[in-house]
Each structure stands twice: as C-alpha cells, then as structure tokens.
Amino acid sequence: MRSDTDKAERQGSPHKVLVVDDEEWMRDACAQILQPEGVEVMTAADGQTGLELARGGEPDLVLVDLKMPGMDGLAYLESVKTFDPEIVAIVITGHATIEVAVEAMKAGAYDFLAKPFKPSELRAVVRRGMEHRLAALQSSALLQGKAPPAELHLAMLAHRFKEPLAALRTCVGVVLQGYAGEVSPRAKGMIEVAAQRADQMLHFVDDWLTLSRLDQGKRITEAKVVDVAEVAKAAVDRVRQHSQAEKLTIRSVVTGDPGTVCADVGALDELLDNLLDNAVRYTPAGGSVTVEVEGTAAEAAVIVRDTGPGIGPEDLELIFKPFYRGKAQKSIPGTGLGLPIAKRIVEAHGGRIEVHAKPGEGSAFRVLLPRNGMKKAEDALVAKGQ
Hints:
The protein is 49% helix and 18% strand. The protein is an alpha/beta fold. Strand 9 and strand 10 form a beta hairpin.
C-alpha cells in the first residue's frame, strides 16, 4: 500500500470509487452517475472481490451494500479498515433503519445512503466523502513530513472539524428521513433547524479552508486547455439542482465562439459555482439568473447577471473582503467568503473580476480570463521566487 504522503500527492489524479453491491443494476447505475464527474469507478459483486479490489486498486471511497450474501456490508467495512483506516465508506441499503445506521457508523462508515436515491444525492455524498478523504490524507502526510505550522493547522482543522460535523449531519438526516420512527411536528422543526445549522457550519469550514489554501497558493494545481462555454454550461446545469433555483428562470447565452483558456478546470468550476450560488440565493422567486459567455482575441469573459436587490455603493468597495456582508444581505444565509474565493481564483489565472450593480437593479459579475493567463501568472510567481 502507498504511504499517506503518496496518496495525498495523488490528489490531482481522478478520484477512485469502488462500488460493492450484489445487484448489477446498482453497480451500473453508480458508475453511470459518477463517471461523467471524472470519477474512476471500480465494481465488485461480493465482499471478498471487493476486498481484493480495495487492496490492489487503492480506492479513495467505497460504496458498499449493507445486505449482501456471504460477507455483508458491516463485515466488509471492518475488514477494509484494517488495511486502509482512512478509506471513506458509504453504506447503501434498501433496509434503512436507525439501528442499521448506528451500526454502520460504529463500524467506520462515513455516511449513509438509502435506496432508492437520486443521482444528485449520490454525487453530493461522494463529493463530501472525497473532501473528507483528502483532508484526512493531507493531515496524516503533513504530520509525518513536519509541515509548516500554518499548513498543518489547516489540514488538522479540515479533518478534526469536518469529521464530527459530517457525522452529526448524517445522524440528524437519518432521523429527519423517518428511520428512527415517527417524529412530532414540533420536534421535526427543531431538528430541521439543527440540520440547517450543521450544513452552514460545513459550508463555512469548506469556504474558510479554500480561501486559506488560495492565499497560500495551494489550491490551484493543474493548468490545461479549457473550453469556456462548456465550463459555463456545466455550472448552469449544476445550479439548476439548487432547491431555490426551481422558482427562478436560469439560462445561458453564448455569443460567437468564446474559445479556450489555460486554466485549472476545478478552480473555474468553483469560481462559477460561487457566483451562481450568490445569484440564486439573492434573487427572489420569479426572478432570473443569466450566464453570458463571450470572448475576444485576448481574453474570454463570463458574466453572471441576476435580478436581485443589487448592491449599494457603500458595499461595492468591500464585497471582496473576507467575511464582509452588506446590510441588505445579512438576512440571507452565507459565509461571506464566496466572493473573496472567486476573486482569488480569477487573479490566480491572471484575470480580473468587475462588478456592475445598483440598488434595486440587480447585479452583474464580469469575469475576464486571459487566454494564457494561468501560465503567465505562474511564470510571474517563479520570477518573484515564490
């Protein structure tokens, strides 16, 4: 088996997921849902085969059916954890009860997914699991390598804070879904508030860690040729799954041929996700969010427009500062870190971000990306000795 340092350094490679389920349709469904996300999927029809693949294939995450002939899911978890303690295991089952969920968590499961589940639910739980896996590996590798205190503290924060928060959110979710039995309306309302707060804390920790890593130059790692229109279209497709997006008109407009840029596609995804998340959250029902994509010979442009409340002149100079939230936005949940993250990603690609907004007239965030901006930004850092 590779060391934790080797595994952490592999983070730029495709994530590996192992699906262990005796039902062929379930294995195929998981593969079809996850492969378009750039995930390498391995499958096994029984626990023993799954253990062999886990040893040889070194997956980052395993999706394991709880009820299988021979070796069941709980026995599989106990076995796989003996040679890869940091592997992220997610139990999938059609026999969902609170007792099963508790037993799975005790055996080391990271999360719990009941059949049947939506593709978006599978993608979300795998994404969270991958983030947890990376944080755990980085924490272990940094401890072994005697990393600088700031970087070590970040890794420890990611691992130590997110693990109990994720476990708390999973247990609350199990109760809300009714697996613990009937919940009174009053109790359900209180539990829903707890779930919302846990989600907000997880989001905050994710954003704070992302911003800290960007400030250290650690987040953006891979430059390649990226089709700007395709990246924007994928971001629009993702935001349409947002619960608040159902009451909005969301569309994309491509003018001419925006072309390509040299960029880290994962960072661009995060940049657009942040801008679109802001637009959706601040736009009232019946409004619209539009993504416009265009380009010139020198640069590509992506504009995110909304019909929300706009931004006052007193806030325009401050919205890219960490934790700042304007007076009109304080009633809407948020971390105050999405726009600072977006700005740093743009700057890391040698670009710039402009804001055009007035109170009561909506907002427009214009991202300008030079064709070879990321490479030029990297060369500039090298020249400065950073």
